[in-house]
Design goal:
Layout: H1 4-20, E1 28-33, E2 42-50, E3 66-73, H2 78-81, E4 85-95, H3 97-100, H4 105-119, E5 124-137, E6 147-159, H5 164-178, H6 190-196
Antiparallel strand pairs: 1-2, 2-3, 3-4, 4-6, 5-6
Helix pairs in contact: 1-5, 4-5
């Protein structure tokens, strides 16, 4: 008969197995990485970067877009998380300046996350996060850089199902969306969101 500790360990191992079998979009290079220090005892971390072309060196820290995904497992946090599991993720990518200046882009990025989770069939609760757009302009010796923009999305949620691969796939989908690749069918577009909110 398995002990409680062994049962917990099996539950986490099955979750990791599911994530390692995720179907990540081909526009991304991704790999498992060590979890950051000072996390819970059991966690799995992934990193992904937008591919730079067939001849380019693969990089999970691509300047065209990159992200991190971490699954935390701590049964003692059930009361706080509503689940023994918690997903924490991050994505960022440069934007065309016109898109970066759009007043709705942060809201749309958040909608892309919710759409990706729904369209992948990932069940969740206690979703939280921030979307940050950054506008920059170079001066002095960096004046040749001109103006630029970047979007950054940080989020966490508690999975309600055991299809953990779907949660990793949704994270990868959002990274691709922010990096400018075609959205998954059914996801809101920036134009549609903008038109729906016109007064």
């Amino acid at each position: 008969m398995a002990t409680i500790h062994e049962s917990f360990h099996d539950e986490f191992d099955l979750a990791c197995e599911s994530i390692r079998g995720a179907k990540i979009r081909p526009e991304l290079d991704w790999q498992e990485i060590p979890s950051p220090e000072r996390t819970v005892e059991h966690s799995l971390a992934l990193a992904a970067g937008v591919k730079q072309g067939s001849d380019a060196t693969s990089s999970i820290d691509s300047p065209s877009g990159a992200g991190r995904f971490m699954l935390l497992y701590d049964p003692a946090s059930f009361d706080e998380w509503g689940s023994p599991f918690r997903v924490v993720c991050f994505v960022q990518a440069p934007l065309e300046l016109e898109i970066g200046l759009d007043p709705f882009i942060a809201e749309v990025a958040w909608a892309w996350l919710r759409d990706a989770l729904t369209l992948r069939g990932a069940e969740y609760e206690h979703l939280a996060g921030t979307a940050t757009k950054i506008i920059s302009e170079g001066f002095g010796q960096l004046s040749s850089h001109g103006k630029g923009s970047q979007l950054e999305l940080r989020a966490s949620w508690s999975p309600k199902d055991t299809n953990f691969a779907a949660h990793a796939e949704a994270w990868a989908e959002v990274l691709c969306s922010i990096a400018g690749f075609p959205h998954q069918e059914g996801a809101v577009s920036l134009d549609a969101f903008r038109n729906a909110h016109k007064r």
